[in-house]
Amino acid sequence: MPTAQTPLTSQSFEYTENPESPENQEGFETVRTAPIGPNGFGLEITGFDCAAAGPAALDTVRAWLFEHRVLVFRDQHLEDPARYEAFMRRIGTPIPHVLQDLTVPGHPAILKISDYVHPDGTPSGVLDGGTYWHSDMSYLPHTGIATSLYALRAAEQSGGTEFLDLRHGWQLAAREPDLLAALGCADPQDALDLPVAHRFGNRHSDRDPGAVDQHLTREQADTLTSVRHRLVERHPVTGVPSLFATSGTPRALGEADERSSAEALDRLESFLLSHLAGHTHRYRPGDLVVWDNMSTLHRGTGVRATSELDQCRLLHRINVHYTEEATP
Ligand SMILES: O=C(O)CCC(=O)C(=O)O
Ligand SMILES: [Fe+2]
Fold first, then answer.
1. How far is the CA of 149 from the centre of ligand 2 (A)?
2. Best of 131, 135, 139 to mutate for ligand 1, by most ligand atoms within 8 A of CB?
3. 4-8, 130-134, 261-265, 320-324: which has the minimum mean pLDDT?
4. How much of the chain exceeds pLDDT 70, in percent?
5. Given this model, what pLDDT does residue 25 score?
6. Ligand 1 nearest-atom number relative to CA 298
7. CA–CA separation, 85 and 195 (whole Å)
8. How high is the mean pLDDT of the chain?
9. Closest ligand 1 atom to the C-alpha of 303?
10. Binning pLDDT at 50, 70 and 90, where does residue 226 land?
11. Among 298, 313, 316, which is best to mutate for testing ligand 1, by the most ligand atoms less than 8 A from CB?
12. Are 261 and 249 in contact (CB under 8 A)?
């Protein structure tokens, strides 16, 4: 497994086949895995019952997560919030969401993501709060956060979630001296040391009032402060470097002000969007998607409000902190 000495532009993370992997265990003969995208990005898993997974299988789930970053488990039975939370608790510590009014009653760490709007116009969950590129909870001081979305309902035409591979994004960006210079970095090592100030919401809404954003009440906003992460973070488990949360919350690079940082962040975002192939996951009921926010960006796509229950998408979301160490 790579360590903190892994070269900055390492081409791939050496994944050692785990002899305890479900394929090799009694009772897991039905497990099948299939790669989703290039460079090891994304893994689809069938024939695996998350709710029944024992300790060795859970170690494998974590290894898959840190290697492939986006996991799609098909045909799960996690409708019961307590059962779902119990599974995610074995990957990390659930984090209650700031939008408490949209959580599942009795489960402050399960947030409802839904395009269903009640006849009186009130939303039944977060509708389009995640439809701009972002990494979850990058407005909080700790890194090492995984997100899961479990599909209780998913009509064929309802929205999907699109993912981008920021680990590969860093491998590409590190070879672009002009881009690095625009970000205020003389060389790739500078990017590892560059602090970036992050604040809740979508940075594009600072200049574009039409941009999608999340709105907080004063009390919710009072619980949050501005935090700093580095432009390139080493993964807290694998040590592999990746760009971190380059869209959504980042506002200021190093000592630069927000105005000049916006131009450089726009340039970085355009570079990534034009050089990386995104993968869109379209939900089927029973899908559990789990991803590592350390080296991915995502956004909801094709999300539209509906008042037809049989046309809607209802996802239960949990964020977990999979390391106990907070990154300064
Ligand atoms: O709407 C979606 O598919 C994505 C939602 C999202 O960003 C999230 O749950 O973190
Ligand atoms: Fe999100």
1. 10
2. 131
3. 4-8
4. 90
5. 61
6. 7
7. 34
8. 89
9. 1
10. confident
11. 298
12. no
Q: Please determine, for residue 194, whether its predicted confidence score (pLDDT) is greater than 70.
A: yes
Tens digits of per-residue pLDDT, 32-65?
A: 999 999 999 999 999 999 999 988 889 899 999 9
User: What is the per-residue pLDDT across 99-125, written as a single tens digit (0 to 9) for each?
Assistant: 888 999 999 999 999 999 999 999 999
Residue 296, beta-bridge partner list: 165
CA atoms of 250 and 246, how far apart (whole Å) = 6
Pocket of ligand 1 (CB under 6 A): 113, 130, 136, 147, 149, 159, 161, 298, 300, 303, 317
